[in-house]
């Protein structure tokens, strides 16, 4: 499973990247706003840190606008994945941008049928939003499972990018189902390393080590 960081926070991206934990990054207009940075500057900086796909989102609603924005975003670096929304226009833009050789991440997916259409349009990634479905009392993980089944039934190569991840349990479940990628806020990715028994065990080992009076270095 690949890990993408869902953020435009350069320090967090650098930290995860140095730990060898990062396969890519996803951004969206809200995350760019939160960073307080210029989209071109911050996206270029992210692409310089991370070798894998970096999603940058279009904001037009018409096909021509999305394609023009996608082409411009793709010029930032070779590892840009153009993000388009899951609308009919977004699917048309996806097909055109894929035809030009760009990676495309189709975002804001909330149903298996939408995911099926994105695969037909040749999307590189489909982004089903788990947390936002859970927020309205629906089952985000059931959607990941449905998309996995459908893509496997027909051999679609579109990668399932589990998005809108809110907890470490979301990551475990998405991995169990076989999502290709998970994108999560840096804090959630970091929490994957935590376990109270690890902390307790480490405390006990260090206390015993102190009693030996020895040193390693
Ligand atoms: C990823 O590409 C999405 O933009 C992101 O995961 C949305 O997450 P949110 O629902 O927490 O805003």
TrEMBL record:
Q: Name one Pfam family in it.
A: TAL_FSA
Q: Which is one GO molecular function term here?
A: transaldolase activity
Reactions that this protein is recorded to catalyse: D-sedoheptulose 7-phosphate + D-glyceraldehyde 3-phosphate = D-erythrose 4-phosphate + beta-D-fructose 6-phosphate
Record's keyword annotation contains Transferase: yes
Q: Where is the active site?
A: 83 (schiff-base intermediate with substrate)
Which biological pathway?
Carbohydrate degradation; pentose phosphate pathway; D-glyceraldehyde 3-phosphate and beta-D-fructose 6-phosphate from D-ribose 5-phosphate and D-xylulose 5-phosphate (non-oxidative stage): step 2/3
Q: EC annotation?
A: 2.2.1.2
Q: Which GO terms describe its biological process?
A: carbohydrate metabolic process; ketone catabolic process; pentose-phosphate shunt
Q: What main location does UniProt list?
A: cytoplasm
Q: Which principal EC class is assigned to this enzyme?
A: transferase
Q: Which UniProt keywords apply?
A: Cytoplasm, Pentose shunt, Schiff base, Transferase
List the subcellular locations.
Answer: Cytoplasm
Q: Which GO terms describe its cellular component?
A: cytoplasm
The record ties this protein, via InterPro entries, to: Aldolase_TIM, TAL/FSA, Transaldolase_3B, Transaldolase_3B/F6P_aldolase, Transaldolase_AS, TSA/FSA_arc/bac
Entry's family note: Belongs to the transaldolase family. Type 3B subfamily.
| HAMAP family in the cross-refs | Transaldolase_3b (MF_00494)
NCBIfam families hit by this protein: fsa_talC_mipB (TIGR00875)
Alphabetical list of PANTHER family matching this protein: FRUCTOSE-6-PHOSPHATE ALDOLASE 1-RELATED, TRANSALDOLASE
Its name, as the record gives it, is: Probable transaldolase
């Amino acid at each position: 499973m690949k890990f993408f960081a869902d953020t435009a926070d350069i320090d967090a991206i650098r930290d995860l990247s140095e730990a060898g934990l990062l396969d890519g990054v996803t951004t969206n207009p809200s995350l760019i706003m939160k960073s307080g940075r210029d989209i071109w500057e911050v996206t270029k900086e992210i692409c310089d840190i991370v070798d894998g796909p970096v999603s940058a989102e279009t904001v037009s609603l018409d096909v021509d606008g999305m394609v023009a924005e996608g082409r411009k975003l793709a010029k930032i670096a070779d590892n840009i994945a153009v993000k388009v929304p899951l609308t009919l226009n977004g699917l048309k833009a996806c097909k055109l941008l894929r035809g030009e050789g760009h990676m495309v991440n189709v975002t804001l997916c909330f149903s298996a049928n939408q995911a099926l259409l994105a695969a037909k349009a040749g999307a590189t990634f489909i982004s089903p939003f788990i947390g936002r479905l859970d927020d309205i009392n629906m089952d985000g993980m059931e959607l990941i499972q449905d998309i996995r089944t459908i893509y496997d039934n027909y051999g679609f190569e579109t990668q399932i990018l589990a998005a809108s991840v809110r907890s470490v349990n979301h990551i475990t479940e998405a991995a169990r189902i076989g999502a290709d990628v998970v994108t999560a806020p840096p804090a959630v990715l970091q929490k994957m390393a935590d376990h109270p028994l690890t902390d307790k065990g480490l405390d006990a080992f260090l206390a015993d080590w102190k009693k030996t009076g020895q040193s390693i270095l």
